[in-house]
Design brief:
The complex is a heterodimer. Chain A is mainly α. Chain A folds into two domains: 125 residues, A middle domain of Talin 1 (Up-down Bundle), CATH 1.20.1420.20; 116 residues, M75 peptidase, HXXE motif (A middle domain of Talin 1, Up-down Bundle), CATH 1.20.1420.20. Chain A is 59% helix and 0% strand. Chain A is built from 13 helices and no strands. In chain A, helix 5 runs parallel beside helix 10 and helix 10 runs antiparallel to helix 11. The longest helix of chain A has 30 residues. In chain B, strands 2, 5, 6, 7, 8, 9, 10, 11 and 12 form a nine-stranded antiparallel β-sheet that branches. A three-stranded antiparallel β-sheet of chain B has the order 1-3-4. By secondary structure, chain B is of the alpha+beta class. Chain B contains ten helices and twelve strands. In chain B, helix 1 runs parallel beside helix 4, helix 2 packs antiparallel against helix 3 and helix 4 runs antiparallel to helix 5. Chain B has a domain of 243 residues. Chain B starts with a helix and ends in a 17-residue tail after the last strand. The interface between A and B is large, with 40 and 40 residues.
């Protein structure tokens, strides 16, 4: 029929099935970039399909939208998982407090890593809590006085102190407040509203944030723990996708492509961890080859994940009303 | 200033004062080519003729307002922030005078003299023995920090000049932000810009030291008509709603500082300049559906028309769309310029450039926009708009990383005047 359909069909066939836990032993398949298909798609094709696209643009998805009700159960499952992660995080925060009291900086940094990792396991709810969110993982960049701003608190305030040799006792209050903020979030979690669109977008954007803010070092300037953070983002992404698996099955071949690319990313991370004696290296400790492998497999995963929100659309995009008439 | 430094300033200025007449030289060359009719020229000769005629174009340095503000943006630009390290006020004044003097010579072009062969040449010579003007503009501006207690300039501070604050969502790198002096260099060719920066910083060495710089380029005007605005690196047309620079009454309302208004007298005819290096996360943007991109901006990506419309310059008629059914209420163009009577005096003149500076540490394209805006009152105009934009959905895809607030004084009035002279009378 059309190049677009052929392209989708090929993609679906090309990446079908199989164990998703590892990419090893499978033939790596390159996904053809859609631009070729778009260029070949003529205005005549569009008209034959009855598509509204102008200037040869491809038609919108032919899939039937997913009912919003179908997301109730996945989101509920995700909230349960998140509550579990917050509980684990509280355990690390308790360790952090003891380490600060005992003036054990190395133990304090290890506890911070654990707390941060499990916070990132929530991925899908970041930004959903407004001021509470800022209290837990707010960055100093947008604050009027930056790192000296009194509103700069939470994980990154602790990170700054722990990696810049602040007095342990000076950080104790920040750690106590972080525990309080996490407990408050835990109490509010059941009543937090997450829309289907927000939820499916997170499946894509948790790792976008990892690339933009974490692996780049922008949000972890002191600890440099971008690799640990990316691995945690991958965990969170897989958790979200697991809850959406039954909805994604059979739709556009998206889940197969996604799982293949996430398995490659997981393999890259596992290899890097092995090569660093079972620890997460900081981003600056990566060799050039490790860095390229991680950046490249993460980028490829993102190119696959960006199809998830569109695959699970809950509505046909409304048509845009016309402007009355050009005024000049 | 040491006697040696002073000799260096004076010597080089004298040598270069003899320069001139290049417009005529380059013009003569173009003329020679022009004697043949267009049909008889090879494509290569036609291309050479076009390049030479644009290389010969000179924009006056001395004018009521500095060039490079209302001047249409050419293809190439560099923004360089310098910090004053001059030991005293007199040395600073001489350096600023030197900056204007050298900028005037370079913008007008010409041959520079040969000194004795065992002396370093007066010009690096990167553009050859004759500097073609290439529509070069050099716009000089001052940051608020110049008006601290070092040089006794505090009482002359333009009233609305502050240090650029951290807006929500900003991640400003202090080493790429602010500065005492900003030099904006624009020209048709990259080598012209690079040569100009090299000559200017040489002329003030020891008094004004490089702090940060960023290179910019304009997208070509790819039509369909010559009026259509060029695209930024998000592929959307940028600058569509700019105020009309040929309307001098409008420019006096929006761009130029007027006499009175609480401003020091020397500032009249100047303009506040906002520069922001805004990283655009291009890979992320390319993973966003077209409809979502267009809703974030409020325009069609292909034509640049407001959503629902067909032409770039069509009025988006927000009055007919109070619910945001056609153009979302959070769309960039709607928040930036609501086109209402109360927001009419908030409009700014944008004169931005794209930038590309390689890859970041995570292997991502380090690209974006050197946002440049001129306005009469930063608080009333730019800052008000910027605060409105803090909630726009596009903030996920951009990160402001540097820049600053500056004040571009009125222009130099003639060969013995210089930009900023009014500060030292």
């Amino acid at each position: 029929m059309t190049c677009i359909s052929a392209f989708l069909a090929l993609t679906a066939l090309g990446v079908g099935g199989g164990d998703s836990s590892s990419a090893a032993g499978r033939t790596p398949r390159t996904t053809p970039h859609p631009i070729g298909a778009i260029q070949a798609y003529s205005e005549a094709d569009a008209k034959r399909n009855g598509a509204a696209g102008e200037g040869g643009a491809p038609p919108v998805t032919e899939l039937v939208p997913v009912s919003p009700a179908a997301f109730v159960e996945p989101i509920a499952r995700y909230k349960l998982y998140s509550a579990g992660q917050l509980q684990i995080m509280l355990g690390y925060i308790a360790h952090l407090r003891s380490a600060l009291q005992d003036r054990q900086p190395a133990a304090a940094r290890a506890a911070w890593r654990g707390a941060y990792e499990h916070w990132l396991h929530l991925g899908a709810v970041y930004g959903a809590f407004g001021a509470l969110n800022d209290g837990i993982d707010g960055a100093p960049g947008g604050l009027p006085s930056g790192v000296r701003d009194p509103r700069f608190t939470g994980l990154h305030r602790l990170e700054q102190g722990l990696w810049q040799g602040a007095r342990e006792t000076a950080l104790l209050g920040v750690a106590i407040r972080l525990g309080d903020d996490v407990r408050l979030l835990l109490r509010r979690l059941p009543s937090v509203q997450i829309t289907p669109l927000e939820y499916v977008t997170r499946a894509h954007e948790i790792l976008e944030d990892a690339q933009r803010d974490l692996l780049s070092g922008a949000d972890v300037p002191w600890s440099g723990e971008g690799v640990l953070a990316t691995a945690a983002g991958l965990e969170a992404t897989r958790e979200v996708l697991a809850t959406l698996r039954s909805l994604l099955d059979g739709r556009e071949g998206t889940i197969e492509t996604v799982e293949f690319s996430l398995a490659r990313l997981a393999d890259a991370l596992a290899a890097i961890r092995r090569e660093h004696d079972g620890h997460w290296p900081t981003a600056s400790q990566l060799s050039q080859r490790q860095s390229e492998l991680l950046n490249g497999t993460l980028g490829a995963a993102l190119e696959a994940l960006d199809a998830v929100p569109g695959t699970l659309e809950t509505r046909v995009p409304p048509s845009i009303p016309s402007l009355p008439s050009p005024s000049r | 200033m040491s006697p040696l430094d002073r000799r260096q300033f004076v010597g080089r200025s004298l040598a270069l004062l003899g320069a001139g007449g290049l417009g005529a030289l380059a013009g003569a060359e173009a003329e020679r080519d022009g004697s043949a009719s267009a049909q008889s020229l090879s494509p290569a000769a036609l291309a050479r003729r076009a390049e030479q005629s644009s290389l010969a174009a000179a924009i006056p340095f001395d004018a009521v307002h500095q060039a490079g503000i209302l001047t249409p943006a050419p293809a190439q630009a560099t923004f360089a922030a310098l910090d004053a390290i001059a030991p005293d006020r007199q040395t600073l004044a001489e350096a600023l005078q030197q900056l204007s003097t050298r900028a005037r010579q370079l913008t007008q072009g010409g041959a520079y003299p040969r000194l004795e062969v065992d002396d370093p040449p007066a010009d690096s010579g990167v553009l050859g023995p004759i500097n073609a003007p290439d529509a070069l503009t050099v716009t000089i501006a001052f940051g608020g920090s110049l008006f601290d207690d070092r040089y006794g300039l505090a009482s002359h501070r333009p009233r609305r000049l502050t240090q650029m604050p951290n807006f929500p969502n900003d991640d400003l790198d202090p080493t790429r932000s602010h500065g005492d002096v900003l030099v904006q260099i624009c020209a048709g060719q990259r080598d012209t810009v690079v040569h100009t920066l090299r000559e200017l910083v040489r002329s003030v060495r020891g008094s004004l030291q490089q702090r940060w710089a960023i290179d910019g380029f304009s997208s070509a005007r790819r039509g369909p008509s010559p009026h259509n605005s060029p695209r930024n690196l998000f592929a959307f047309r940028d600058g569509t709603a700019n105020p009309d620079v040929s309307d001098s009454a409008l420019m006096n309302r929006l761009i130029w500082v007027q006499a009175g208004a609480g401003e020091p007298a020397w500032a009249t005819g100047g303009s506040y300049q906002v520069v922001r290096a805004i990283r655009m996360h291009a890979e992320f943007w390319d993973r966003v559906g077209l409809a979502e991109q267009e809703e974030m901006i409020g325009r069609r990506r292909d034509t640049g028309a407001p959503l629902g419309g067909t032409e770039e310059f069509q009025d988006p008629r927000y009055d007919l769309d109070p619910q945001g059914k056609r153009i979302p209420l959070t769309a960039h163009i709607r928040l930036a310029n609501p086109r209402t009577a109360p927001t009419a005096d908030q409009r700014i003149l944008r004169r931005g450039f794209n930038y590309h500076r390689g890859f970041d540490t995570a292997g991502q394209l380090d690209q974006g926009l050197v946002f440049v805006a001129f306005n009469q009152d930063i608080e009333r105009q730019f800052a008000t708009i910027q605060r409105r934009l803090s909630e726009e959905p596009m903030v996920d895809y951009i990160t402001p990383v540097g820049g600053g607030y500056f004040f571009a004084p009125p222009g130099s009035r003639g060969p013995t005047d210089w930009v900023g002279a009014g500060l030292f009378v």
